[in-house]
């Protein structure tokens, strides 16, 4: 009986390969891969042919040429005599600056708004709901134009600048002027000490976790972290003689001289991105808190724990496993939305590369650099958030 069944299974009808599920799966993958390669080859070949017909040189050799344009706002020294490569680096740093500031501030504001939406106070909850529903449904570009117009129209001119701190901090149509620390050679060593403190903090936290698992006793973490991160740079600064010199902004003519400046474009971009993204983060936080069973609140309340302590130590740590995945998407959206800075004149990566492409005609190379930069930053943020999500995940025993 078994031999007859084996014989029947061996003798397959003609064309049975197409009826084989495994064979069809492999065949379809080969066909899809071949189609992707064919489309890619066509696009590349067509692009190279068009560039050759228009006598446009391809390649990235233009990065070593002098850019010929200045950048109004940069974290590092820049001038029109710099190369295109340095100008692009300035644009990347400006984009990272906006992304980092936006992520930090939108997280803080979004968490506050999300908790406020669940408040037992009717007015607080309604105001938070109005904030979320309003800002989420207005296009971000319009919000950026709004803030840029407000700063340009509502704030006073330079000669009538608002002195937030007399003689030190001024606010006007030209933006925010603040004191600036004069650069010193010891600052580089302070940064080295800071990163050494980051590594020491990581090692100490791992040692504290292993000690707690082995003995059940907790070692202090917060104060040693402060000591590593800020104590080491402060110690280096004190050993060097505590050099500190402030460059204060002073009114001269139609603008301020000296000090540090936060341009109206950066202020508008930051306000728009933070307020817009915080509205989405607030909903993520609210959903995460609601996902925690009410029994957690009731059990902790029965022990006499205050609602603030319950939220901070019991509910939010459990809600993070629900909050982190969608909030990662909001961080990525904020970083990519920063490209709208070109609409209000802030020199981010897109703005600088647009100028570069207009001058050199290297549109393909410029777009590829933009794509590579945003892809790298987005993947880095995603990788970090995924790592953090695994760190805080609840481990069942």
From TrEMBL:
It is found in: Cell inner membrane; Cell membrane. It holds the Pfam family BPD_transp_1. CDD domains: TM_PBP2. SUPFAM superfamilies: MetI-like. Residues 92-385 form the ABC transmembrane type-1 domain. Gene3D superfamilies: MetI-like (1.10.3720.10). Its main location: membrane. Keywords: Amino-acid transport, Cell membrane, Membrane, Transmembrane, Transmembrane helix, Transport. NCBIfam families: HEQRo_perm_3TM (TIGR01726). This is Amino acid ABC transporter permease. It comes from Lacibacterium aquatile.
């Amino acid at each position: 009986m078994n031999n007859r069944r084996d014989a029947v299974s061996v003798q397959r009808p003609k064309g049975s390969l197409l009826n084989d599920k495994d064979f069809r799966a492999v065949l379809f993958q080969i066909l899809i891969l071949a189609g992707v390669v064919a489309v890619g080859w066509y696009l590349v070949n067509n692009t190279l042919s068009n560039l050759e017909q228009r006598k446009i040189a391809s390649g990235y050799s233009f990065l070593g040429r002098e850019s010929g344009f200045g950048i109004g706002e940069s974290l590092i020294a820049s001038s029109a005599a710099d190369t295109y490569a340095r100008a692009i680096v300035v644009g990347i740093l400006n984009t990272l600056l906006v992304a980092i500031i936006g992520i930090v501030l939108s997280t803080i504001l979004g968490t506050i708004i999300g908790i406020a939406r669940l408040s037992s106070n009717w007015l607080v909850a309604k105001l938070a709901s109005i904030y979320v529903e309003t800002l989420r449904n207005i296009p971000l570009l319009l919000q950026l134009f709004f803030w840029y117009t407000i700063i340009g129209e509502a704030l006073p001119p330079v000669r009538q600048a608002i002195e937030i701190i007399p003689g030190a901090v001024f606010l006007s149509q030209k933006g925010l002027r603040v004191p600036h620390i004069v650069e010193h050679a010891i600052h580089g060593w302070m940064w080295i000490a800071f990163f050494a403190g980051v590594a020491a903090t990581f090692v100490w936290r791992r040692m504290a976790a292993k000690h707690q698992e082995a003995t059940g006793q907790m070692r202090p973490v917060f104060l040693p972290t402060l000591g590593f991160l800020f104590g080491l740079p402060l110690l280096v600064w004190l050993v060097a003689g505590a050099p500190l010199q402030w460059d204060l902004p002073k009114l001269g003519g139609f603008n301020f001289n000296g000090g540090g400046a936060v341009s109206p474009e950066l202020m508008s971009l930051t306000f728009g991105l933070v307020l817009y993204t915080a509205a989405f983060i607030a909903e993520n936080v609210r959903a995460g808190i609601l996902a925690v069973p009410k029994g957690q609140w009731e059990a902790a309340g029965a022990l006499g724990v205050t609602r603030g302590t319950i939220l901070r130590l019991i509910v939010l740590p459990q809600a993070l496993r629900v909050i982190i995945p969608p909030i990662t998407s909001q961080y990525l959206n904020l970083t990519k939305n920063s490209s709208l800075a070109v609409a209000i004149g802030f020199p981010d990566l897109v703005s600088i590369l647009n100028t570069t492409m207009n001058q050199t005609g290297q549109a393909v190379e410029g777009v590829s650099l933009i794509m590579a930069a945003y892809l790298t930053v987005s993947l880095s943020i995603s990788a970090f958030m995924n790592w953090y999500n695994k760190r805080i995940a609840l481990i069942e025993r």
